[in-house]
Amino acid sequence: MQYSHRVPRTSHPTPPINGTTVFTGWLRPFCLIDRHLLREMAASFALGLVTFTFVLLMDQMMRLMDLIINKGAPVGVVLRLISYILPFSFTVTIPMSVLLAVLATYGRVSSEGEAIVLKTSGLSLYRLMAPGVLFGVVATFATLWISTLVQPSSTKAFKTLTHQLYHTHALTALENGIFNTEYPGLVIYVDHSEKTDGTLQGILVIDQRTRDDQHLIIAQEGKLLNTDEEAETPIGLQLSKGTLQISSRDNPARYRHLDFETYDLQILTGGTLAETVARVRQSKEMNLEELRAEIARLNKGGDKAWPLQVELHKKFALPIACLILSMIGAPLALRIKKAGRGVSLALSVAFAVFYYILLATGESLGSRGRIDPALGVWFPNLTLGIIAISLVLTEGREAFLPARLQSLIWRAISFQRSAFSKKRDLIQP
Fold this sequence. Notes:
six-stranded antiparallel β-sheet, 6 strands, alpha+beta
């Protein structure tokens, strides 16, 4: 007689599931998959940031290279100018780079079938989006730091250095063979200049800065005056061996002709570029406290503070755009299924163009008081936010509610139906 030997089963007690265990499991989200996604997003973000920033600054780069090649500006000074421009460009290119990074990463996950495997293993869309949203949060805080603290100081430094360059040979060097109109009320023509000593040859100057008279100056030679960086006196030209012709605007018959051996022509400080920086970027040089103080002062005096209000709201709207675009990227890439780097780049540019067209329109209308400045600046974020919520709910409809909550709801519905059917059976004879 054979006896069957059974191996005794040892039961291991399952650890109790309490709130601490669940919370610890939820706080352990960044496992190997999450770290892998974050590394991919960081690489795509860096590539996109360099590309978008270079494209955005291409026009400025050409002008700065002209300072080095044609006007003899030191390379170190030009590099400082570029570093001062970068923070302003980063506030524009970081949101675009965030969308590109999230789209490229989740597009690869979707195209290679990893998204299906992760979903079948129990990960919902919301859990799968966690690394992308975290990346957007970090980018939001970084952009907020740049727009509120770094950018005002860098813009102010850019303006100061630009004014200093206007007192040096870098910006006062006149281009040969063209009519230079950098200085208000002056037209200056130089035939050619000597690189060795900076002497100008064949000079023609039309001076229309006075209301009554117009001066026409022709000189054989000339050189720059007051090119010291520390000088506060106006920039000037010392002209030699020439003629000065003065004509009256009111009476053309009044005319004077003078010959001179040496004539010092004063040129007003500043110039077109410096005046533009001082006028257009005045609000961009202010930090939050200065903006709020200036807005309060203008409102108290009954003046219009709309442009400053627009600038104040932009310092927060652009960083928040990073978070919204990161929420758009994951569901959009998973929905497209095959979103490679080329498709991701095209979608990033399309969304960026759409966003900045809305922002430029709202900024223009808000600065002129046609609409409320806050509405003009935040309307693009509101529009993208609606798109993000729609994509998330559409793509994640299978996991709109947690599984346990769904089970409880279905149990409640089943219990209600069974109770109703029993009650109906009791009522019927």
